[in-house]
Design goal:
The protein is of the alpha/beta class and about 180 residues long. The protein is built from 4 helices and 6 strands. The two termini are about 40 Å apart.
């Protein structure tokens, strides 16, 4: 029992930390599409230009997508079967923590040392990356993957790039439909 009580806080901390770093992924697709017919791709500049993120981050995302598409056996082409587009959304989450209990800030018993408790405010940004695959001939969306998770607020470019690569890699595990690993 004592062992459990000692390891429980560590496990709890690990679960909280890992839940903040994970990327939640969903995908949707046209069930009437034969995805085996697609062998080449190109980026859909018109759609990518509308993404409301910095050009540096766009290039990072596009490099990551290109790498994943090439790894899946696609070839980049001037006359593609698929057009790849992206868009992003972000939301700022603000959390206010107050450990003062009751209307006067007192804990379980009266104590002048805990007057009004302790307040802290934390914010983080949750972002979503959408990757759209469009049939180049029909100009119709055939597959969409979405990854959501917390964004890195670090100024460390390697961490930022690693987070972008993680988002893209996890989203692309859903393509082609039925090939999830």
């Amino acid at each position: 029992m004592r062992k459990l009580l000692k390891t429980l806080p560590i496990l709890l901390l690990f679960m909280v930390a890992s839940s903040c770093t994970s990327v939640r992924v969903v995908s949707d697709y046209d069930k009437n599409t034969n995805f085996d017919n697609y062998k080449t791709f190109a980026f859909f500049k018109t759609g990518i230009d509308k993404a409301k993120i910095s050009d540096l981050d766009k290039r990072r995302i596009l490099r990551a997508i290109e790498s994943e598409m090439l790894a899946k056996g696609f070839t980049k082409s001037e006359n593609p079967d698929l057009l790849v587009s992206i868009f992003t959304k972000s939301r700022e989450n603000i959390n206010v923590y107050n450990n003062g209990f009751g209307p006067y800030g007192y804990g379980w018993g009266w104590s002048p040392y805990y007057w009004n408790g302790y307040n802290s405010v934390r914010s983080n940004t949750e972002g979503s990356l959408y990757i759209d695959l469009i049939d180049a001939n029909k100009k119709e969306l055939v597959w969409q993957g979405k990854g959501s998770g917390y964004l890195s607020s670090s100024n460390n470019i390697e961490k930022k790039e690693a987070r972008i690569n993680e988002f893209v890699a996890k989203i692309m595990t859903k393509y082609p439909p039925g090939a999830e690993q």
